[in-house]
C-alpha cells in the first residue's frame, strides 16, 4: 500500500470516527433531553419556559473568577461602558467577582460571544434577544423600568421637519433606512406592521440598512434617507443629549409599545452565582446620571421571556425571521456587508471633502 493510499485511508477512518462520535454524542443528548422546543441542540427545556435549563451535570457548570458583561451595540459602545460602570461595581460587590465590560460592535458578535462562553452577563437588544435565547443559552430576567412597570419603547418613523412627507403613504418610491436585519423596531416590526397600513418595505419603498438607530436618525437629518423607523427611546436620548434637535424632525408613525433591551445571564453559570446575580439586578437602583441616560428608569424590572417577549416573537414569525444557526449566520453576513458599505460611504465622503 502506498504512502498516499495509507494517508487517505487514515484520513477517511478518522473522519468516520469523528462522525460516529458526533452521532453518539447527539444520541446521548437526545436521550437525556425529552424537550428542547426552539432551542439549539446543545440546550434543554424540560420545564418548557422557552429558555435553556441549568445543566444537571455539575461538571458543566461554570463559576469564573471574572465575569464579562456587555450591552447591546445600539449606539456608541463607549457611551454604555460608562453608563454601566456603577452597576458593574455593584455587581462585583454582590458576587465577589471581578466584572469587566466587553464592547461589541454587532448583534451577531454579541450572540456568538455568549454562545462560545466568553460572555456571562448581558443586555441584548429586543430583536436579537431571541437569537441569544435559542442559540447562546441566554436567560433574560429583567428590563430597565420603574417600581410600577418595565420601560418600553415605540417604533416611530422620522422624517425631516421641512420635508414634504406627512403620512406613511408619502414614502412610496422613497429611500427609507432600516437599522439592521435583526432589529425589532428598526426592521422586523416595520416589515410586520407597515403592510397592514398599506405600505410594504422593499416593494413600496427602497430599504437601505444604516447599521444602528442613531445612524438612521443622523442619516435622515443629513438627507441621506427620506425617512427611518427607529426606537423612540434611542431618538429621545439623542434629543436629550443634544445630539439632534426635536424641531428638525417630524414623526409620521407611532406603534404600540415594546419591551426594551433584556438583561440576563448564561444558562450554565453555577446556581449559587446565578442567585447572587439575580439579587444584584433586583436590589440595584440607578444613580441619577444613569436614570438620565435611560429615560427615567431607576431599576431593573423583572420579566418573563415566555410571556413578555411574545409580541416580539410574533413579529419575528410574521417576517420569517428564524432564531436559528442559519438565521444568525445570515445576520452576521448582513451586518458585515452593511458595515463595509458604511465604511465605503464614509471614505468616499471624506475624500469628497
UniProtKB/TrEMBL annotation:
Ordered alphabetically, the record's keywords are: Signal
Keyword Nucleotide-binding tagged: no
Q: Which domain of life is it from?
A: Bacteria
One of the record's GO cellular component terms: ATP-binding cassette (ABC) transporter complex
Q: Which Gene3D superfamilies match?
A: Periplasmic binding protein-like II (3.40.190.10)
Q: Which Pfam families match?
A: Phosphonate-bd (PF12974)
Q: Which GO terms describe its biological process?
A: transmembrane transport
Q: Which residues cross the membrane?
A: none
Q: Which NCBIfam families match?
A: 3A0109s03R (TIGR01098)
Task: Name the family the entry cites.
Answer: Belongs to the phosphate/phosphite/phosphonate binding protein family.
Q: What is this protein's record name? A: Phosphate/phosphite/phosphonate ABC transporter substrate-binding protein
Species in which this protein is naturally found: Limnobaculum zhutongyuii
The gene behind this protein is phnD
